[in-house]
């Protein structure tokens, strides 16, 4: 595995009339998920910050460049409603506080419409699709999940979900080709990205010695 330290999370679930039980009440999990890419912590993620974030977790230059362009192009206008066309809007900034407004369809439903973490939806992923190992997904099982989550004619959602999960699988699968439950949990709250950056820095430091 890439990560030696377990990510236990520790989310406290509360009842919610709109989205059921098991929500993060004190913080927006989706904001935490993307905040890693806000490299200067100003609340706006620009394409070059997305690029830096992908590089920080070990993605190659080409993947980082393509991801930065496509992600910011797809999310910027959705998270900055009402912004008049200007040089600033051409910079494709993504506002962290409004990231829930950019949720796409055909996803797992682990984030609700307000960007909160829905724990029972997270557990449902493994109850439905983890057939080989109860705490991990194989490549085949991951693709089965993506297919099952597709909403009719939601082509953008299909592409977005496929891109997100396949990128995650390629970057974070273990030596046996498994995407571990603890790794996926870390993606949802952003802690995985921080861990990956620390791992990369530590590896780079050893090479210099």
From TrEMBL:
GO terms for molecular function: calcium ion binding; monooxygenase activity. SUPFAM superfamilies: EF-hand (SSF47473). Keywords: Membrane, Transmembrane, Transmembrane helix. The chain crosses the membrane at residues 56-75. InterPro entries: Caleosin-related, EF-hand-dom_pair. Belongs to the caleosin family. This is EF-hand domain-containing protein. It comes from Gossypium darwinii (Darwin's cotton).
């Amino acid at each position: 595995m890439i990560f030696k330290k377990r990510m236990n999370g520790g989310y406290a679930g509360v009842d919610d009339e709109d989205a059921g039980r098991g929500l993060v009440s004190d913080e927006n999990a989706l904001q935490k998920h993307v905040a890693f890419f806000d490299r200067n912590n100003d609340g706006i993620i620009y394409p070059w910050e997305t690029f830096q974030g992908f590089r920080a977790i070990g993605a190659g230059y080409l993947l980082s460049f393509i991801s930065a362009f496509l992600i910011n192009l797809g999310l910027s206008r959705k998270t900055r409603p009402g912004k008049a066309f200007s040089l600033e809007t051409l910079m494709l900034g993504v506002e962290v506080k409004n990231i829930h407004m950019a949720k796409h369809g055909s996803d797992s439903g682990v984030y609700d419409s307000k960007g909160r973490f829905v724990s029972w939806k997270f557990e449902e992923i493994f109850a439905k699709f983890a057939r080989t190992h109860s705490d991990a997904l194989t490549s085949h099982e991951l693709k089965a999940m993506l297919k099952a989550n597709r909403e009719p004619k939601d082509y953008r959602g299909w592409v977005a979900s496929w891109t997100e999960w396949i990128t995650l699988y390629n970057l974070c699968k273990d030596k046996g080709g498994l995407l571990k439950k603890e790794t996926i949990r870390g993606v949802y709250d952003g802690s995985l990205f921080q861990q990956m950056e620390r791992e990369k820095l530590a590896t780079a430091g050893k090479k210099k010695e």
